[in-house]
Amino acid sequence: MRRWRALLLAASVALAPGGAPAVAQQAMINAGAWSAYKAKFLDATGRIIDNGNGNISHSEGQGYGMLLAYLAASPADFEQIWYFTRTELLLRNDGLAVWKWDPNVKPHVTDTNNASDGDMLIAYALALAGTAWKRNDYILAASRMAQALLAETVVHASGHTLLLPGSEGFAATDREDGPVVNPSYWIYEAIPVMGALAPSDAWQKLSDDGLTLLKTMQFGPRKLPAEWVSLNGQPQPAEGFDAEFAYNAIRIPLYLVRGGVTDKALLTHLREGMSQDGVPATIDLTTGRPKTVLPDPGYRIVNDVVACVVDGTKLPGSALQFAPALYYPSTLQLLGLAYIGEKHPECL
């Protein structure tokens, strides 16, 4: 017990701005936008509904929901989402969450593997909320999840420190072209917080190697990363997956800037490569042709945020109008708006 008290104290100080005790949290998402998001995607049980994916719930969505509730300065909503998460998803013996929950079947958990990005989002949100709202139980839960992530999914392989997408199915021992990674699972803003919660040099190496690898994942005419990449030898699109820059990959530039990465060459390259006439799209890496153009403001805001960071370009009016339709782009839009409001208000 003494070890956990010391860890909680150390994490609280490390997570607070400038290493100082936490101060009252300011909302980064306005109340109207958060109310609209809740009305569309949050049910009474605390479940975030992915309405673009058969109305399932998953650890990623719960983590995003908790992070957005924190950014909206809404402890009651945060607790509601956390309740569902811990009672319905934190069922594994290793401290990580099962990733998929389907309301249309029983039992509702249809895949007991974890999704490492969902776990990291949950732990990150718990750590931020626990520090801001003086909830040691949140920080303790975050610490346990960060330790589990470190033990089960952070590995050294192929000369790099990697984040396996799940504890099962992606390592070199699991498949012939393993290890396989998903570059959109590196949540750069959260990785230093994981280091405060579960101290290890591996976290900094994970962040550094993620950036290094991202710059080598240049496939096809547009030289973009694939969503699933084999690191068995030279990086290449993984077997059994479409060779595409797909929906998950759209968030990579947003994760970079939110994590403080301002490499203009890298951000510009990604923005130009993932766009068709300035609009984000999923890309067939073999041909370089767009598969699906994504005009939703939630997708477009990724390019808008990059333009702000790289060129100082103001966000268009459409990016500031939040009318949630689909879970995933709506989530990206709120994360983008929260970032610009905090770090680049001159672009509003």
From TrEMBL:
Reactions catalysed = Endohydrolysis of (1->4)-beta-D-glucosidic linkages in cellulose, lichenin and cereal beta-D-glucans
Q: Which UniProt keywords apply?
A: Carbohydrate metabolism, Cellulose degradation, Glycosidase, Hydrolase, Polysaccharide degradation, Signal
Q: Which InterPro entries does this one have?
A: 6-hairpin_glycosidase_sf (IPR008928), 6hp_glycosidase-like_sf (IPR012341), Glyco_hydro_8 (IPR002037)
**Is Signal there in the keyword field?**
yes
User: One MF term from GO for this chain?
Assistant: cellulase activity
Looking at its record, which EC class is this enzyme?
Answer: hydrolase
Lineage, top-rank taxon, reads: Bacteria
A Gene Ontology biological process noted in the UniProt record is: cellulose catabolic process
Signal peptide residues on this chain, from the entry's feature table = 1-22
Tell me its EC number(s), please.
Answer: 3.2.1.4
UniProt lists the family membership as follows:
Belongs to the glycosyl hydrolase 8 (cellulase D) family.
What is this protein called in UniProt?
cellulase
